[in-house]
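User: Before I run my own analysis I want an independent prediction to cross-check against. Here's the chain; please return only the structure tokens and, at the end, one sentence I can use as a sanity check.
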Amino acid sequence: MSFLADWFVHNSLAVLLCTATIVSTLWLFRANGRLGLKPWQIALLAVTHTLLGLLSVKIFAVIEGLGDASAIGNMSLFGGMAFLPIFYAALARFGRLDVSDVFDVLTVCLVGTLFFARINCIVSGCCLGAFIPGTGIRYATRELELVFYVALLAYLIPCVLSGRRRGQVFPIYMVSYGCFRFLTEFFRVEEAVAGPFHRAHLWSVIAVVLGCSILAEFSFDKGRK
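Assistant: Structure tokens:
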């Protein structure tokens, strides 16, 4: 048992990302009514999405480290939000798919993959919460983020399957995660860059502003129609 536990700790990222890919594959089959892909295309898309997601969070970590190549071993979960939309837009364009359907369906894959990535943070002991003043107990920021992802998926999945909030799923994720992360960032162990604020506070604000702008555009178009 100890051997299996040690093996999992040393290979947790690979195991969890493989699990995320399997879950993404099952989801893509379930939501394929909105994409119309062939089985082999679904499998390829799930694997590609996971690999690009991993690359995105690592690249964003290097950007946060101001080009420090040693930061490539780190991950910043805002990277998926920053770079994967480029892949989504390209997939819709070259695959001749509806862009709203692609963004809606793959946002669920993104949130699910982030869920497993945050589990890896717990296993590897990174992204710790700060100590609660006067105690030796840390704020459970990572565990709280897992609860957030589950609650978000519980809301988004029915939206995607029913077509409700069509085209708005990704900006809803941007706004909700931006607000959540902005608040919990105060309770995390991170390097402050301006008073009590961390770099993630900036990314959170940008996410909320952009997400709200997209949602406002949807409301404007709906009212005009």
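Sanity check: The radius of gyration is 18 Å.
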